[in-house]
Amino acid sequence: MTLLELEDVTASYGHAQVLHGISFRVGENAAAGILGANGAGKTTTLRAISGMVATGGKITYDGRDITGYRPDKVAALGIAHVPEGRGTLGDLSVRDNLRVGAYLRKDRKGVAADLDLCLDLFPNLRERIGSNASALSGGEQQMLAIARAIMAKPRLILLDEASLGLAPSTAQRVYQAIRRLRSEQGVAMVVVEQNAMLAFSVVDHAIVLETGKTSLSGSRDELMGLDEVRRAYLGG
Amino acid sequence: MEYFIQLVIEGLATGSIYGALALAIVLVNRATGLINFAQGGMAVLSTFVAYALFDAGAPLALAILGAIVFAFALGAVLERVIVRPFERGDPDTAVVVTIGLFVLLGGVAAFFFGYEPRQFPSFFGLETLNIAGVFVSLRSIGTIVVLALVVVLLQVLFRGTKLGLAMRAVADNPVSASLSGLPVSWLLMIGWGLASVLGVIAGVLVAPQLFVSPGMLDFVLVYALAAAILGGLDSPQGAVIAAWFIGVIENLAGAYIDIVGNDLKIAVPFVVMIIILIVRPQGLFGRKVVVRV
């Protein structure tokens, strides 16, 4: 079952076209990676899905054409976007950030259960629950950003550069939690990541972008077997 | 001593009126980063609605309630129709737009009601109480109580309700808030509506004293802006405390410092404000903006 499908998607900021026709699919409970150099259009692809940029082509989610939907409408359909730069609400406490994540939900019990899940996945946040998000370390803010997405009980998470700016050990811990989320909750994901090793630890297939176009796509194992991928993204 | 206390209480009452409008300015500033000069015009026009309803025979409470509903709608509509296109652009442009709106709304009020000042009754009557030798008007006490109530209600709204949480989230980071499904444009409209309601509260509180006229809130707006800035622009508590401070200083200086008198007393708060801002540029309660490099 396909959950998300992009067909020949284009996107532009003002007159600058950044995406020139991207296509890929993510199945229910599956995880797709988007790899590529800086400026290749990885973040813009996620923004196109969330309705944050002017978009052409066709984006289908759960059988519905969502091209051009506003970000809050996309979120309401069950897509949670963990944006580049984390997007935590600095002046709000950790608890309030998580409550904002659950804003659209009416099931109090489910929200309480997911709060427990978040604090179980990220024990650091339990200790900082009353602190303002701006007082957290970079790693903790990334954890909070992911936890805020979890609180929406999404069917699909768009994860943008979750390892950016983190110490390697912290990045590992963040990705451990993401893998747990995949295996225990079965949430589908689109993972944008500079660090291909981390991406490949989560996704089952991926595309490689080059200047706004898909240059390669395939299963995790296929891509990891390719010399060009190994040289460019896996350090040998 | 009794005279001193009397002056302080009257100062607090005047300060409460500045405070209501200052809160409106802070509310909009937090949500959109704008200083909204139109706040004064919105309040004047809405106060005229209270006047018109009362003049047409409505009971005072109902006239005020009607004006509050009108003010909410006016604020929401102005945000949606006129200010929205400028919100994401250059803040200087947006501020000039709000100044234009301020003038325009005053003009609209003048068009319908003329410039002749109209009498408006006080919700609290005209009695003066004698409390242990201190004479205070019921109106002064009522004004202070109303503002205190407004502060408590805002606190409950922002800290205790889901709507308040959403409004804080949008004020903090609208893009990020929309990714959690918050209807940002609706919340901004509600924020403007709410600020506009605070403005009409100031207008109705001050109307019995200043009469209702298109220019009635001009100097109140200037003090409210001073209070908002002195309080730190993003702190509601700061704005109220600064507004009280300004009201009291103004009153005391006028009474006790001979050369100040009634004419110069309006300048005193500004002198104090400038001195404080030189020492503390972020205002009394504002947070220092730390730029991370």
TrEMBL record, chain A:
It comes from the Bacteria. The keyword Transport applies. Residues 4-236 form the ABC transporter domain. GO terms for molecular function: ATP binding; ATP hydrolysis activity; branched-chain amino acid transmembrane transporter activity. Pfam families: ABC_tran. Keywords: Amino-acid transport, ATP-binding, Nucleotide-binding, Transport. InterPro entries: AAA+_ATPase, ABC_transporter-like_ATP-bd, ABC_transporter-like_CS, BCAA_Transport_ATP-bd_LivF, P-loop_NTPase. One of its GO terms (biological process) is L-amino acid transport. The keyword Ubl conjugation does not apply. Gene3D superfamilies: P-loop containing nucleotide triphosphate hydrolases (3.40.50.300). Belongs to the ABC transporter superfamily. This is ABC transporter ATP-binding protein. It comes from Pseudolysinimonas yzui.
From TrEMBL, chain B:
GO terms for biological process: amino acid transport. GO terms for molecular function: transmembrane transporter activity. One of its GO terms (cellular component) is plasma membrane. It is found in: Cell membrane. The chain crosses the membrane at residues 6-27, 34-54, 60-82, 94-115, 135-158, 186-205, 211-233, 240-260, 266-285. It is a multi-pass membrane protein. Keywords: Amino-acid transport, Cell membrane, Membrane, Transmembrane, Transmembrane helix, Transport. InterPro entries: ABC_transp_permease (IPR001851), BCAA_transport_permease (IPR052157). Belongs to the binding-protein-dependent transport system permease family. LivHM subfamily. This is Branched-chain amino acid ABC transporter permease. The lineage of its organism: Bacteria, Bacillati, Actinomycetota, Actinomycetes, Micrococcales.
